[in-house]
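Researcher: Go.
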Amino acid sequence: MPLLRNIGLLAQCRADGSQADIHSIPRAALVWTEDRIVWVGAEADLPAQYTGWPADDAAGRLVIPGLVDCHTHLAFGGWRADEFELRILGSSYQDIAARGGGIVSTVNRTRGLNPAALVLRCRDFLSGMAALGVTTVECKTGYGLDLAGELKLLQVYATLASEGPQRIVPTLLAAHTIPPEYDGHRDDYIALITDRIIPAARGLARFCDVFVEEGAFTIEEARRILMAGRDAGLRPKLHADQLSRGGGAELAAELGAASADHLEHIGASGIDAMRRAGVVAVSLPIASLYLRQPATPARALIEAGVLVAVATDFNPGSAPSYHLPLALTLACTLQRMTPAEALKGATSIAARAIAVEDQCGSLEPGKAADFAVIDAPDVNHWLYHFRPNACVRTVVAGRTIWG
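Model: Structure:
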């Protein structure tokens, strides 16, 4: 239906205003033609030209922009449930990695799957995400860690993007960790990334990401990789300051990164640098919960003037859930974000973090007709009263994909 009426509350989530300003319209209506929004506002103000259009009834529910999950590791083989117990019993992320677990164990399983098998797994995940109101998904590589493996993951994402229905944004994360075959030969692996993998990823990936952390990549290594990516047309992103304060936020600012993600241990200088450079902070509260890490200091970031996105970090180890509404509730409880701030962080701000803000993330004329109908009277009630799923309908480009 091209007209949705009887919306109890519609949150536009435009980019203007503060992070808490979601531009709510009570008793609203929404009009679209084909895949684009043409009008949004109070139903009492609906232009006469639309009053006779085929209409659907929102039954007084909440309508929000389609959710944007701006940080996932969607394509992977296997799971790592054994690590869940190990962490409960006191093993750290670094301890598990040192014993051959962590990222490397997923790399081994992912290398063993052919592209068709990976596409099937991803389709299942995306279907579950669609049911939650998620219409755009950023997808990282990082479980191939060689030329063939990284390109395989990018081709999987290209297949998913061509199939739809969700919008897929691919990111190259060849610099996730050093693979075992390059132990003692770090420079050779970094050269492989800069000289072969990045050039081959041109046209398949939109961003180049690096995990900057003790045991992963140093600031100097990350700068080299990200500059090579930038030269190839891939905008920088960073996993930064997750397990320790290592200067990743400052590097993100220096290189004009689209975002710096995690930031559980960011310091005052990193916050200030990101504010001045306009880098989006991406908070990942499900990972903070599973790793029992301090939550991203969202309150300090917002008050300093840094935009804060919220995403799942969906992966088999530290965040084995694609439930973005759960991440939003955790952003409220663990990070002291208000429900409105969290929602804007998973819509227009998340869209900015992956450079699709001109297409989606808000309900405005000209944007994609991506939205979700939520069985709640308002945003506060939705995120306060956590349910398995409050989404009753998901629409992408004007087409219902759930509900």
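Model: The chain has a mean pLDDT of 97.
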